[in-house]
Amino acid sequence: MPTSNTTPSLRFLSLTALALAIAVSLPACRTPEELVINKRDQVFATGSSNKKTTHSSASYQSVDRGWNPSVSAPRGGTGNKLSYSRVSVSEPYVAMTFDDGPHPVYTPRLLDILKTRNIKATFYVVGTNAAAYPHILRRMIAEGHEIGNHTKSHAYLPKLSATGVRNEMGFTHRAIVQATGVPPKTMRPPYGASNSGLRTRIKQEFGYPSIMWAVDPQDWKRPGSQVVANRIVSATTKGAIILAHDIHAPTITAMPNALDRLLAKGYKFVTVTQLIALGEGGAE
Ligand code: NI
Q1: 284 in Cβ contact with 88 (< 8 Å)
Q2: Which residue stretches of the chain have pLDDT < 50?
Q3: 237-260: buried (b, 16+ CB within 10 Å) or exposed (e) per residue?
Q4: Active site residue: 245, 246, 248, 260, which one?
Q5: Per-residue pLDDT tens for 106-160?
Q6: How far is the CA of 45 from the centre of ligand 1 (A)?
Q7: CA distance 274 to 146
């Protein structure tokens, strides 16, 4: 029966051809951002012995990839204030914060960028995303980052009842604990929308200070990666809490450049509760 013999081999051949076609077309599926990051990381992975070549082949302003010093400041302290946008420190410490994730693709990519620089950041996660991607939260904790509460649904808190606020905060608190075993110590109000009554109640009920920011690159408006990086670098001063969002690809693309330029300027990255603990006179 010739037909029954040829059909399977034809199927095999066409499957092989399909697999080859997919393999060949995969690189074309990558976004330009991925290609920029990968090119840069490859360049810098082999760069130290050949720095001049490294500089000339970097795709944007060339800065050596820095290595953030490990800072042994205590974690988990929340200070005495209801709210912080910056902390008065004697050394050039800053805290990088990323809101609204985790994102299943962009956040792991960002974690890779942070890891190669020994930078510890703080992630203000949305509860529904935290519940959907608990493995990314576990990776954050395993790699020394801090996780804060950004409500369940990115809610505009001033419009909610006391019960509504409690539900929004409680859901995310539980999702973070369930995923990592580490309770969050700080929160960030979505849109920065809060008031003194809310801040007081959130501190009383959850122990969280409300964490605002001193540097806002407006990256959610997608002005372009280079603009995001420039805004972060030019606005950062010591003690600053820096805002960015790990749900936008151009923000992730901006990070190697922004972080390396800040490291080159001597800034040392710590988490939010470390920054609070490093405040002059300890927790302020
Ligand atoms: Ni947000």
Answers
A1: yes
A2: 1-8, 10, 12-13, 15-16, 18-59, 283-284
A3: ebbbbbbbbbbbbbbbbbbbbbbb
A4: 245
A5: 999 999 999 999 999 999 999 999 999 999 999 999 999 999 999 999 999 999 9
A6: 33
A7: 10
Sign of CA dihedral 39, 219, 67, 78: negative
Q: Determine the distance separating the centroid of ligand 1 and the alpha carbon of 152, expressed in angstroms.
A: 11
> Angle at which helices 32-45 and 106-115 pack, to 10 degrees?
20
- Our CA angle for 69, 114, 52, nearest 5°, is 80
pLDDT at residue number 132 = 98
Q: How far apart are CA 87 and CA 91, in angstroms?
A: 11
Distance (Å) from CA 210 to ligand 1 centroid: 13
* pTM listed for this prediction: 0.79
Task: Dump strand ranges (E) for the chain.
Answer: 83-84, 93-99, 122-125, 146-149, 210-211, 241-245, 268-269
Task: Assess contact for 95 and 79: CB atoms under 8 A.
Answer: no
Is residue 216 annotated as a catalytic residue, yes or no?
Answer: no
41 has catalytic annotation = no
What is the CA(90)–ligand 1 centre distance, in A?
30
Q: What are phi and psi of 94, to 5 degrees?
A: -140, 160
Task: Give the integer Cα–Cα distance in Å for 32 and 274.
Answer: 35
| Cα 260 to ligand 1 centroid, rounded to whole Å | 25
Cα(97)–Cα(92) distance, integer angstroms? 16
